[in-house]
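User: structure tokens for this one?
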Amino acid sequence: MSHDEHRTIDFFAEDALPAPRVTPADAERIAAQHLGFDAHAQALGSQQDANFLLREGSGADLAVLKIANPAFGAVEIEAQDAAADLVSSAHPELRVATVLRRPDGSPRRTAVDTESGPAVARLLRHLPGGTFSGPRHLSPSTVAAMGTIVGKVSTALRDFRHPGLDRVLQWDLRYADRVVAKLAGHIGEPERRAAVRAATAEAWARVQQVADVLPSQAVHLDLTDDNLIRTPGSRPPMPDGVIDFGDVTTSWAVGELAVSLSSMLHHDGVEPHHVLPAIRAFHTVRPLSPKEAEALWPLVVLRAAGLVVSGRHQAAVDGDNAYAKAALDREWRIFEQATCLPLPVMIHLVKDATGLAGVPAGADSPPQPLLRDLAAADIVLVDLSTDADAMDDGAWVDSGTEARLVTTALAGGAAAVATRYAQARLTQAPALSAVSAATVPTGIDLWLGRATVAQAPAAGEVLVADRGQVEIAHGSRVLTLSFPPTVRPLLAVGASVQAREDIAHLPAGVSIHVALRAASGPVVPPLVRPEYAAGWLPLTADPAPLLGLAAATGLAEGTDLLDRRDAVFATVQEHYYANPPRIERGWRHHLVSTDGRAYLDIVNNVTPLGHAHPRVERAVSRQLRRVNTNSRFHYASVVKFTERLAGLLPEPLDTVFLVNSGSEAVDLGLRLAIGASGQHDVVALREAYHGWTYASDAVSTSLQDNPNALATRPSWVHTVDSPNSYRGRHRGVDAMRYGPEAAAVIDELAAAGRPAGAFIGETFYGNAGGVALPDGYLAQVYAAVRRHGGLAVADEVQVGYGRLGNWFWGFEQQEVIPDIVCVAKAMGNGHPLGAVITSKTVADRYREQGYFFSSTGGSPVSSIVGLTVLDTLRDEDLQGNAVRVGGHLKRRMEALADRYGIIGAVHGSGLYLGLELVRDRITLEPATEETAELCDRMLDLGVIVQPTGDHLNILKIKPPLCIDTTAADFFADMLDLALTQLGHGHTW
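Assistant:
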């Protein structure tokens, strides 16, 4: 075929498009003789072109040599280069693989001869950073950034015109049906071939419904994970570069996004709902029309089908093309994911994501009720939602809860019991699951307490009449009744029915499922996953009016809750996660969202007994029914509680102050120390957090909590090195130097005439992720502060109360006795309760400063809570559980550290653990962004865990002390899975 610079490709006129056969030696010769580059060539993969990375002798990357398929004419290449220049000019923030130019400004482009015929060769700008190819999971922020770039390229090319765009490409989705028809025979497996053909036919029919109104323009048409380039060093990987304009043509504008979305679907853990951030981001930059939103997912399916047939074809005609063969499995996964849900579901999901969803039409009140002689007043609605009182005490984890609630209601005289449409059913949620369960009902379940007759609510046509099921078409909707197979329908398939005509006789005791779906839509399952509910529910209608009940309202209630929070709740009071689940229930070591998704709670040391402990609830409720006032009144509970608390501490710590929080406890502890010593200077550890009150914040030196912490300390606060034996100034055995050095600082302060009135520090380094202090550290520091008249203040807010397992108090691990102990968090199992325990001598000195009073510190309710927590800790052996389960979990994580180089260390004791993530085990560079990405991925896998430490590179693992081995193993398994999916699966 002679080379014609004005010719453009017509795929359907070609037998095949094998990549030109060019060796690295050929590439080096072409670069040197024709393009002025002396370099070493390394072959790069390509479907239909020949690409080489050119490097100079030192190994530095110079450029990419691209030798186009001989089927492509010179005018097409010119269009590609012009498009790249246009995008680069329009969006200078993007790196674009533009053609390199000679000193005179002409492109480094030439015609060369190959075995396959004459072709155009040119040098393109090399973009370092790498592509997104491979199985690595794509995080929401990455997906959104990809969508943003696609939107920017689309807007840049909107008005681009060039004769080289007049092409007929196999990748142009306007020809998808013809491509599949031509190439499907290359799929060897009959089942897969049939699936591809069927999906193509359905998707093509959908697109044709709106094709005439879809805008067309110049498109890149290959903005995939292979052609979007990572910002060098970005973590998580984020795109900022665009390469390979080889498929530039004129096509439907929305196809640009469809191509990109399809490339995301093969990545580990990615399913259709995970690409919604890309759709939203694209829509923000380049708004989709309603018709484009309707066409988008069908085009994704057509792209997926095209990839499968083209990949099989290319592998057949170009047997030496390793790149094409390697893509076959991932192309099939793309197709599986693209077609795993019915097209109408995904179309509605896209509309919902872009704000283009209309208000779904409700079911009209029928001429006749579905169940004869059964009035709405006879039906009891059973609430199975997260907010239902019936879900208290962990009832939702009991598989028999629904049956129990129904039986109770029927026994109470209800003629029937019904569930609610579209209200997530918590009873369907497993406690531990890496994938959300189907919890959102698309119909209503009904249990009958007395016999009745199901009758046609309106005229219609019988579609199905079989044991256990009847379907009747009523206009645009289909009524489905499902019942036990013992019930025989009284209708025949194809028969016309009139209102009030009998459908089936239903005896007492049977259950039926009632649903309404669109007649033109797919079969709808009784329950759907919450991520896809916005796609399924518009295909249904609430059948409640058929039963005489009011239709559900406010299904979207709370969708704006986060915005409302930001409007009135000070934003400095941050929330976990950018898009947090709405948590309205907890049980033991689980938290539950309003979608009916249960999460394993790995972060909540506020509730050591577990969430919603019935013993605490009953005790609080009982006390609130009697009295709750302040501690100036005389009542028994405050005496009993403070006696119990003081009894847990060694002599001479025998006197208790009760407050509401850890911040207040630390603040009061410092005031006690300063008042008793008469010395106003305080020594504190660096990288520590103690609270938000004036005094507790003054001694908080965590740079994460306050980036200016060290620079803004008041003059009376003096800091010493963080005694971190893992990443501190002294590591390993050298950590023994921290104690003498801190003591020396205290001595120097005294010598300078400013003896410290207090030393404050956590007794087990919680803010650093649960790092144990060096042996003997507190003994040396306490001795130093005491010899100069100061007092030792122990912050046990996070680590006390048995969390460490082997020790009830952290100071026991150090074999010391503080002068003042500050404690909170665990004391109230979520109720605001804190305490300061000291000696009577120190406590009495406080009177010299005035009096102390806390309105609710030590109130009857707070005291009862405190007593109940101590009783339960003892009776349920939760400290022992911390030893057993904590030890097991730590061993599991240490085993993971042997497999994942990003795990630098496993810190902690009992159920106060920290998993420190680093980029290098020698330099200990913190893996801050990787840790944040891991936390987001763990949330998607059903685990709530958060980072801690000054670098936010440590997973803080401090779950409720009731956590069991099954849950600990689930956490370790999900951590293993997430680390692999995020590309950290390498050993050291």
